[in-house]
Amino acid sequence: MSILFSGCQSKAQQTADNTNSENSKKTIVAYFSCTGTTEKVANAIANTVGGELYRITPAKEYTTADLDWRNNKSRSSVEMADKDSRPELAGETIDIEKYDTIYLGYPIWWDLCPRAVNTFIEKYDLAGKTVIPFATSGSSSITNSVKELRRLYPDIVWKEGKLLNGGAKQAAEWAKQTTR
Predict the structure, then answer these.
(1) Is 4 inside a domain boundary?
(2) pTM value?
(3) What is the Cα Rg of the chain in Å?
(4) Is the distance from CB of 115 to CB of 80 less than 8 angstroms?
(5) 19 occurs within a structural domain
(6) Which of 39, 61, 133, 162 could make a disulfide contact with 33, Cβ separation 3.0–4.6 Å?
């Protein structure tokens, strides 16, 4: 009898292990933020969807002077003027294979995502992954940035993005809708 029970238990454990490995894909909320605005939204989304949080970190942090969009010689202005600019990233490396859904957050710069976001997308092979973009902005919509991302990275499964200027509460409400 104990041999029979042991055999059933082993079979049940194998089934559980197989089910766990099939469901081991996770959600990550990757975001780029210099002033903390996009970071607050990313935190709310991660808390709502149960996703891991990952900050896209530039190798050299941006200063206030770097972010001066009125100065054509500021770092952000120079990067955004060059469509091939890909600022170097720092921070921990992630195993992107663990994730099948990626929320991708960024501020809108010059009606696009910052070039550091392009560096992140190109560093990790996101082909076939579901990517849900979100952004914050003082005056621009998310429309053109998503259009450009879809054009540059057609092998990604892009879901509809959202501009989240309403803060954490708006972000959490939107995130709930994306999981339905």
Answers:
(1) no
(2) 0.85
(3) 20
(4) yes
(5) no
(6) 39
Would you say residue 174 lies in a domain? yes
pLDDT in tens, 84-120: 999 999 999 999 999 999 999 999 999 999 999 999 9
E-only strand ranges, the chain: 26-31, 52-55, 57-58, 89-90, 99-107, 130-136, 157-158, 162-163
Q: How far apart are CA 16 and CA 4, in angstroms?
A: 18
Name the residue range of residue 119's domain: 25-178
46 in a domain, yes or no? Answer: yes
Q: What is the 3-state secondary structure (H, E, C) of 115-130?
A: HHHHHHHHHCCCCCCE
- At residue 31, the 3 state secondary structure works out as strand
Give the Cα separation of 123 and 35 in Å (integer): 23
pLDDT in tens, 12-67: 344 334 334 445 679 999 999 999 999 999 999 999 999 999 999 999 999 999 99
Domain holding 134: CATH number? 3.40.50.360
Q: Residues 161, 136: contact at Cβ < 8 Å?
A: no
Q: Is 110 helix (H, G, I), strand (E, B) or coil?
A: coil
Domain count of the fold of the chain: 1
